[in-house]
Amino acid sequence: MTIGNIILILVVLFGIAGFIYYYINKKKKEEVEEKINIDDKTYTLDKMQEFVKKRLDEITKVNLYDIGLSEEELKRRKNKKYELKKALKGCTYGDVNDKKYVKEIIFDLLSKEYGVDETNISKSIPFDIPSLLTAQDKFDILIYAYKKEFGYEALTELIKKYNLAVLKYVEGETKPSYVITEQEISDIYEKEKITLSFADKLAVVVQRIYQRYKGYSSIDEVRDMNIDGVSGRSFWSSRKLFKPSCTNR
After folding, report:
1. Left, alpha or beta for 202 (phi > 0: left; psi -120 to 50: alpha)?
2. pLDDT at residue number 77
């Protein structure tokens, strides 16, 4: 074998080794990194929900054996993948622990990968301009603030404090019912004067995205509450609590 042939073989081997190294590293980056094109709609709820859905799908379906992980990292990723798949399944049945886990993952995805920060978060919900907040926005913020203090008694405390559990007539209806109106939500929000940190704001956004993606729409948090000694889901099925329009964005 001539020296020329040996050199050629070495070049080919180095080329193959270089390709394998490039391929493995490319796979690693592709799993997490995808350039986000920033425009006026990037930080809207719809766009963020789209991103979250895509990333959760990638995390639960990626073939971990194809991305050249160390044994320790492979084990860690496998456990995370298993826990997430389990939680995504469990939260659809109303498991509060699975719901909490999925929301923590969404929080991390938005803050660490999607680039949500103090400057752009108000493009999803106008936290700093009360006049632009919908009744749904105000209710979500109120429940979040009360839940931090009272846990699953949050709605009960809100109802007691503002005497909301009374029969009242609503325009367009002939019989009185148990409702919380948009006007009541707005009045309570103005009185509470809630101050939110960035983490608080992001938690509210995460809840909104979660309830649209995996939860029970606008009543998602209500279902988990304890009301009059029963669960929110039982209360919801037995009495009309909210005027429908107050929970729509």
Report:
1. alpha
2. 87
d(CA 155, CA 101): 22
Name which of 216, 203, 214, 235 is nearest 90 in CA terms.
214
Question: CA separation (Å) from 158 to 97, 127, 154, 203, 247?
Answer: 24, 20, 6, 20, 16
Rg (Cα) of the chain, in Å, rounded? 25
What integer pLDDT is reported at residue 11 of this predicted model?
Answer: 58
Q: How far apart are CA 135 and CA 4, in angstroms?
A: 78
Residue 240 clears pLDDT 60, i.e. is over it: no
Q: What confidence category does residue 6 fall into, taking pLDDT thresholds of 50, 70 and 90? A: low
